[in-house]
Amino acid sequence: MDKSQGRTSREGVSDGADQVTTASGHRGLLMEEPLIFEQGSDGRIGVDLPEVPEHKMRLGALERSGPIGLPSLSEPQTIRHFTRLSQKNYAIDAGLYPLGSCTMKHNPRINEKLARLPGFADLHPLQPRSTVQGALALMDLLAHWLKSLTGMPAVALSPAAGAHGEYCGMVAIRAAIEARGEGRRRVLVPESAHGTNPATAASIGFTVDPIPAGPDGRVDIAAMKAKLGPDIAGLMLTNPNTCGLFERDIIEIARLIHESGGYFYCDGANFNAIVGRVRPADLGIDAMHINLHKTFSTPHGGGGPGSGPVVFSQALAPYVPVPYVVHGPDGFRLVETAGEGSTSFGRLKGYHGQMGMFVRALAYMMSHGADGLRQAAGDAVLNANYVMAQLKDVMTVAFDGPCMHEALFDDRFLKDTGVTTLDFAKALIDEGYHPMTMYFPLVVHGALLIEPTESESKDTIDQFIGSLRSLAGRAKAGDAASFHAAPRLTPRRRLDETRAARQPILRWRSAGGTSQAAD
Amino acid sequence: MRYLPHTEADRRAMLAAIGAPSIDALFRDVPERARLNRPVDLPPHKTELEVERAIGALAAQNKHAGSMACFLGGGAYRHHVPAAVDHLIQRGEFLTSYTPYQPEVSQGTLQYLFEFQTQVGMITGMEVANASLYDGATATAEAVMMANRVTRRSKAVLSGGLHPHYRDVVATYARWGGFEAVSARPDAMGSEDLASMVDAETSCVVVQNPSAFGRLRDLAPLAKAVQAKGALLVVVVTEVVSLGLVRPPGAMGADIVAAEGQSIGNALNFGGPYVGLFATREKYLRQMPGRLVGETLDADGRRGWVLTLSTREQHIRREKATSNICTNSGLCALAFTIHMTMLGEQGLTHMARLNHANASLLAEKLAGVRGVTVLADAFFNEFTVKLSKPASPIVDALADRGILAGVPAARLWSDRPELADHLIVAATETNTTDEMDRFARLLGEVL
Q1: Could you tell me if residue A89 is inside a domain?
Q2: In this predicted complex, what is the ipTM?
Q3: What one-character DSSP code corresponds to residue B295?
Q4: C-alpha distances in angstroms, B316 versus A42, A198, A422, A439, B313?
Q5: A458 lies in a domain?
Q6: Which residues are CB-contacts of A243 (< 8 A; sequence separation ≥ 6)?
Q7: What is the pLDDT of residue A42?
Q8: What is the mean predicted confidence (pLDDT) over A428-450?
Q9: Do the Cβ atoms of B119 and A137 come within 8 Å?
Q10: B296 to A499: CB separation less than 8 angstroms, yes or no
Q11: Could you give the number of structural domains in chain A?
């Protein structure tokens, strides 16, 4: 395929752009920017405040004595500092972000606008309920959409992110087991699982028992059967799984786990592949978290905030955490404490959940509607299969398709080239793309996991494919040295992570020592 | 559909390249009986205008805090946030980027998180801070679990002045994580003797300053007593603006600080998303939960930043990780960093003085109302009053008159009937003298 379509060839940019030196240290639009601590000076401020009225000091002699050491920038300096920092980031707004399992899809701006309406953003969580009926109605409506899309009868909205949702779901399983008067503690977790799965299970006192993947990238049912027994508490399975494949035998898997007396937790990180097309309830799932920041497009924000509501089957519904919204004759109200006789397992978070994310997710769902969500999932799967089909002759597909929303490759195509998965991904940066997910899932050697999402046009995907084909060709042509040097066109080249971990420098300190003694 | 770029011709061409007859055919691995052959029973797509109308109508059913005189605190505070903050965090390069796993294309996020960690360390008076947790309550639970790891003990002693949501979150993690959490009785004046509750199994004492009732105390003697018994002192701060004026936890001997950072840079948002701050001593670094950004050099010897010490984390350590946290509160931490940059030393101190001044003035005005007793000796911007009647109906009555009068203690401690007449009142720089006068006058009328 020769779909270079206007992208500069490697030859076109290797004429020494990385060799240019300037007096300022800036390189055209790439600005060097010092830390705020290296720019501030006394007497400068970015916020004008009124005079402090005369008052009695009532701090009980606990007034701070020493300086804090904080620098300050004026408003224009602040704008410039953070604008320059922003320009050092790749972002979905700027280009295709094929980070498998992370679902970097378009973040609609109406969602941002609506979340900032004073009727949501300027609402205190402890206002009297008569003043927050619209907010509670929104939470109730979001719950209705999530329950309808999953076919599950109950939902907990409060978890703050995916891992927090996993915790919520797995605690509900432990509570249900305790209610049965049993001490089951063993949880089966496929080796391909996200690291959060075993970390979550272990933090709740479960023992993690890994199950291997079969040759087709799915749960090895025979291996799983061999591990079933009376001490099985449950199974944590991602579906579609982290290899980007639908677990064909999932209904049988659910039956087996239920038959042995355990519960089925599904990691819903990849729900975006099947939303509107498959309801988890129809697969026999007992609990599943939904990353609103993946499937329902709330922005990732450079690492959060997320939101991870959990849907529950009837078996686990009695244990949902507080708070939750109930609807009575005089409107909506929140149940905020697990009182006497309650079977709720407790509280997970301050207040009521990530309201700002609820507004955005609901706006996204309503925009798409039932028909649009189904189409979005279809397009996401179409795009991943297209990437797989167009690259399978030059890269090595880990498992035969069709895949779901992401295409998984291994590093066999790099064998004997001297180029590693890491090198290959770093070279992609110079091509103007964020790397794909690397070395995950762990069950595939040198994994490269590509998730284009439904947001990308065919033209964009064709250009991306063109870049990958070119890179694969270069690797095979023996151009390893240029891969080892990549990236070269970024604000910083490869960073020394070993050095960072050996001598950790985790905060700025003034040249004269600490700016504020710790004690 | 406006978010989906493909035309039908595109889809046909792509399916032809794949060799599949239809998109539905790509779902052939889904068991047939689980395939939905029609849309779920939910409304169809809407235009942007229709969505704005529908969700705008729900927003309009709320009475937002700024439309009334707001004296609510209880762990979430209404402050003025400069317009530049929200403008900057909406830059797509911040808003629509992922966790900075690829440092060469994420230096912007990494640098502001390094600045955030430094600011948090400075205001708390601690040596190291992480790149944020979900919120103050979950940060507190993480602090307790870290103290358990550090001391190899398994019992937390919680002050009665700890925010009940924080207490309940710790209790959840304790109950299901196999450790113990015991709470002292809540009382507005903080007459508890926490040091006497520490035994050989106690990993930490958790104390909030100012307390959930607003009361400030000198924690230095408690720190000494707790540490003498081999336990750690965890200090919780729900109003970080106080750190502009009040002696920081680090200077009073805290081993771990868990705080809610919402007050700086972040809107009330009906309770979330907020940003958990987490700081400790350097010697406990490797037991910390959450992400850390560290300084290093790139291949050309230039300074840069990376995520570091990730061998503590779930994606490397799996079931042996210090925490299961992955996504945290990056964008809220950015809002915090920007606002704190604009305030700086002088601005934060000044803002804190304004808050204290307004609370001090409000306490005087409310003390003059018949049926009101101010239960406060030392406080920052929040204090508790005892009313001659139960507080909840009074708060409802005042809401009808345009005053958000405070948080009835019964809302937070529903199991403590003796607190039914307690009202927790906060004042910030956003409150005017006129609002305070109106509050005092109307409170007098309804009591």
Answers
A1: no
A2: 0.98
A3: E
A4: 43, 11, 17, 11, 6
A5: yes
A6: A192, A213, A217, A218, A398, A399, A408, A441, A443, A444
A7: 74
A8: 97
A9: no
A10: yes
A11: 2
**A293 min Cα distance to partner chain B (Å):** 10
Residue A237 pLDDT? 97
SS3 call for A191: coil
Alpha helix (H) residue ranges in B152-247: 164-177, 220-228
Domain ranges of chain B: 8-59, 65-79+345-446, 83-339
Task: Give dist(CA A317, CA B369) in Å, integer.
Answer: 48
Closest CA to B94 of B114, B108, B105, B83: B108
The pLDDT of A461-468, averaged and rounded, is 98
Q: Is A65 a domain residue?
A: no
What residue type is assigned to position B303 of the chain? R
Portion 404-433 of A in contact with B at CB < 8 A: 404, 425-426, 429
Mean pLDDT, to the nearest integer, of B234-244? Answer: 98
Q: Around A253, how many Cα atoms within 13 Å sit in the side-chain half-sphere?
A: 29
Structural domain boundaries enclosing A290: 112-365
Looking at residue B376, its pLDDT comes to: 86
Determine the Cα–Cα distance for residues B198 and B155; give it in Å rounded to an integer.
9
Q: How many CB pairs under 8 A join A and B?
A: 745
Distance CA B205, CA B3 (A): 51
Domain B65-79+345-446 has CATH 3.10.180.10: no
Among A residues 164-223, those touching chain B with beta carbons less than 8 Å apart? 164, 166-167, 171, 174-175, 194-196, 198-205, 208
CA B290 remoteness from chain centre: 15
DSSP at A51: P
What is the residue type of A146? L
Contact B17 A389 (CB under 8 A): yes
Closest residue by Cα to residue B240 from B337, B322, B138, B124? B124
Strands B382-387 and B372-374: antiparallel
Last residue of a domain, one of A346, A365, A384: A365
- Whether the pLDDT of residue A33 is over 80: the answer is yes
**So what's the pLDDT on residue A512?**
60
Q: Tell me what the mean pLDDT of segment A366-389 comes to.
A: 98
Considering the domain architecture, whether residues A357 and A376 belong to the same structural domain is answered as no
| Distance of alpha carbon B428 from alpha carbon B430, whole angstroms | 5
Whether pLDDT at A342 is above 70: yes
**B positions 64-123 inside 8 Å of A (CB):** 64-68, 70, 72, 74-76, 78, 82, 84, 86-100, 102-109, 111-112, 114-115, 117-119, 121-123
State yes or no: pLDDT of A19 exceeds 80: no
One domain for residues A342 and A318 = yes
- From the list B412, B168, B138, B380, the residue with the least C-alpha distance to B275 is B138
Residue B433 DSSP class: H
Give the pLDDT band of residue A14 (cuts 50, 70, 90): very low
- Rounded CA gap, A366 and B170, in Å? 36
The answer to whether the CB atoms of B30 and A274 lie below 8 A apart is yes
- At residue A373's C-alpha, the angle toward residues B61 and B24, to 5°, is 165
Residues A186 and A215 in one domain: yes
> Which residue, B351, B378, B383, B353, is CA-closest to B365?
B383
Do residues A224 and A319 both lie within one domain? yes
CATH architecture for segment(s) B83-339: 3-Layer(aba) Sandwich (3.40)
Is the model more confident about A5 or about B350?
Answer: B350
Distances (CA, A) of A338 to A62, A143, A312, B134, B235: 37, 20, 18, 22, 26
Q: Strand runs (DSSP E) across A290-436, as ranges? A: 310-312, 324-328, 331-335, 396-397, 407-410
- B8 confidence band (pLDDT: 50, 70, 90): very high
Angle at B65 between CA B60 and CA B66, to 5 degrees: 90
Tell me the one-letter amino acid at A198. P
Where is A419: in which H helix or E strand? none
The residue from A337, A365, A393 where one domain ends is A365
Contact yes or no for A122 and B66 at CB 8 A: yes
pLDDT in tens, A270-288: 999 999 999 999 999 999 9
